[in-house]
Amino acid sequence: MNGRVVSAAIATVMAAGLSGVGCSSGGGGSKGFSTVAPPITTGSVTSGLPIARRDAAGYTWHQAQLSNVRGGHVSALGVSPTGTATFAAHFPLARVEEVADGQATLSGSLFYDAYSMATVGTQTFAATKNAARAGAGDLHTFEGGAWRLVVDSRDGEMVVGAIGSDVFAAHGGVGAAGTLLQRDRLTGQFAAIAGLDSSIPTAIGGHEGRVVVGASRNDAQGGAARLFKLDAAGQLEELGVPGAGGGMNLRQEITGLVSIAKVASGSVAGTGSASIASTGSEVLFVAIGSFDVATGEAKGGSILATDGQAFELIATYTDDAPIGLAAHDSTVYAALRSGRLVYREATGDFVDEPTAIPANGGFYALLSRDDANLFVGARGANGGALLLNRRGNSGATSTPTPVSTDRYYLTDVKAILQADCASCHMSPGLPVAVTAYGLSANMANDQADFTATSQRTNATTPAMSVLIRKALGEMNHLGGAPIAQGSAKHQILLDWVTQGARLQAQTQQPPQPAPVTYLANVKPIMASCVGCHGTTSGRQFRLTSPANDTADYAAAMGQVNSGTPEQSALLRRPTGQASHPLVVFPQGSANYNTILQWIAQGTRFQ
Predict the structure, then answer these.
(1) What's the CA gap between 371 and 376, in Å, rounded?
(2) Tell me, what's the pLDDT at 13?
(3) Tell me, what's the pLDDT at 160?
(4) What integer pLDDT is reported at residue 399 of this predicted model?
(5) Which part of the chain is CATH 2.130.10.10?
């Protein structure tokens, strides 16, 4: 079924129930998870989204056959960090090809087949999985012309995604707890930041600057789709999925997540029009598929949209399922396992791509490479891995032009912020501005300011970074447009984001401080808190006695603000900056600095 949801379709989905969406305490850094899905509405969630702006000159399909192995298919797609090449991983050879102008060059082979990729700066990450093989869930990175292993998990499945300049990965498997990881931008190391409440992660996306994880319950006979979002305090909350249900050899999973910004009233424009002004609010599109546990055959699926409060059911499919979403042509595209490509057009309905698609045996991956190029990973009509490329005939592209000058936060971006942004965003500046994007007093805390700034970048499409669009006045901004379009400052910010939003040149970096871990450094400080915060007397913050390191670490993570470390309750309360019966240690003390450094380094456990 295509098109806008009718009441009968809503009733059908709601009748499916919420099986598999249970309540649990979860893992480290997680909240108790919800058991009730947000309400379903009709039209209100997606009102105000831009309409499709398709290429007026039309499109042409190009294809590259990457293998002739029976049953093979392109399983993951990613952007090569240099030039205009595209990475295509294909099953069952666990190979990754670098494809440019239809020509494929082998970039390397992985231990298992990759099913998701993400690119930030000069690095591309590939996550592998094999549901039947414990330990197949690994993470690799491509840099210096070769693939290397960076995370070796014991689980069967791994997924990776990028939000701004941050890279997140998650791993899990049948019977496994599931874990969300985040890369430390300074060290490049990945550390666990939250548990996934007995779920297998299947997709990572972003919504209004926060990471969102799509998953399936970890039951052997098939689980229900689940959706988690990391809040401002670094805790996972679950957004109940309407109609979630699995089991009986049917695995329901979230296969794609993509956000689209709403537009200001009167700015919804058609093909070939001027730029669209965003309101700053986003709608998250969620693709869900149900697959036979044994064969992987698609049994059904749907596409929903949510603002984080309510859901809107956009389309449902029988004996077919969406396998990926992409933001392209100012709208959302979905690739279906059957080999169909659909997109959201002006009425809000999902309709089939009118340009004839080359013969194929089904779709498995989808990627918007730039404004001109949409890539689809497929199985060939006669078998083998097939890469399809729908290219706009006008040739319009947003691929960034290579830049010759290296740009860094400390030497280039900080000066722009001091001159044009600090008066409102620097503490104690304009309260509403500091709340949305806060810079430290006198911009003295470089690490905190760098973190806050880089979180407002978009590594895939630098020009769409919130940092840049706000400064240019393209998004709602109380400060207007402090930076002119095409100015030297505009170019510096574009170059900085394009190059990976780096803090400083590697040769300029001082020796990194020794890693601070929970067990070695933070646990001894928290020992003095057990008297008041023990399990029998603790309220919002409970510690165990005798100590249970895993439980106490989870409790500490619940008091952490990873985006703005100095705003963490774990620091503000014991120093008397927030409500607390006594001052345990003063701000700026050795204990304070140890905990601050622990949070800034990624809250390592050991």
Answers:
(1) 15
(2) 37
(3) 98
(4) 41
(5) 7-392
Q: So what's the pLDDT on residue 280?
A: 53
Phi-psi region of 43 (alpha: psi -120 to 50; beta: other; left: phi over 0): left
- The residues, ordered by sequence, that sit 6+ positions from 328 with a Cβ below 8 Å of its Cβ are 343, 368, 371, 374
Residue labelled with tokens 């700066």: 121
Q: How far is CA 329 from CA 113, 260, 282, 388, 392, in A?
A: 30, 11, 16, 17, 10
Q: How far apart are CA 191 and CA 259, in angstroms?
A: 26
Across the beta sheet with 190-195, the strand order is 157-163, 166-172, 179-183, 190-195
Task: Evaluate if residue 535 carries a pLDDT over 90.
Answer: no
CATH assignment, 7-392: 2.130.10.10
Contacts of 252 (CB under 8 A, 6+ apart): 20, 216, 222, 223, 224, 225, 244, 245, 246, 288, 289, 290, 291
CB 426 within 8 A of CB 409: no
Distance CA(103)–CA(464), nearest Å, equals 30
Q: What pLDDT does residue 89 have?
A: 97
pLDDT at 1 over 60: no
Structural contact between residues 5 and 42, judged by C-beta atoms closer than 8 angstroms: yes
Peptide bond into 546 cis (omega under 30): yes
Q: What is the mean pLDDT of the chain?
A: 83
Q: What local confidence, expressed as pLDDT, does residue 354 receive?
A: 95
